[in-house]
Fold this protein.
Amino acid sequence: MAAIDLNSDLGESYGVWRMGDDLAMLGLVTSANVACGFHGGDPTTLRITCTAAVTEGVRIGAQVSYPDLVGFGRRHLAMDPDELRDAVLYQLGALDAFAQVAGAGVMYVKPHGALYHAAAREPSVAAAVVAASHEYDPSMAVLGLPGSELLRAADAAGMECVEEAFADRAYLPDGHLVPRSEPGSVLTDPAEVAARAVRIAVDQVVVAIDGSRVSLRARSICVHGDTPGSVVLAGAVRSALEVAGVGVHPFTA
């Protein structure tokens, strides 16, 4: 029987600014990519999210970012690799404090936004993210795009590599995501998103924006917490996977 992890980006609210419905999403996903304060997530939000994740049996991952609260981490920053390494390490320590207090720990790392895309394509960025993660805890997994520089660096460092696919994002023919600045980059129809998730899990294929078929081996599927109607989308995805006979389980022990 096919099996897949279902993850979402959570803990991104900041002060009076609310992002998504974390508690509802935690009832649907198996892994939570929790913001670490650099693109979203204040200390109280991190505590609440980690505590709720542990209550729901959801694994906690660190969604590390460029230091860009104003741009929600979606702007590329030309950081020195050593500075980027230390920024990632700082975020891992911050989130893990709240995870430990909640009775768990950070099980994996996943870059956010612009850092996710940069780490997928740029070896120096990937190396900085992996260096910080390996320094902090070499037993952590690294979540990223299949075939990315990030997973290549993680594999070279002896860390567990977890390939990820996106149910609510459009793909380019080369397997990368369509930039959010482009029309049609974010998918919001529950039936379409659910069908895409099942096809990824069962057939290991995604249809790119030009209609071509892209082979896509993934151990985890993401539904973004800030996508409009994210709770409905995640519910549709989970239901469709279960109806298709796909087991929905965390990729971490």
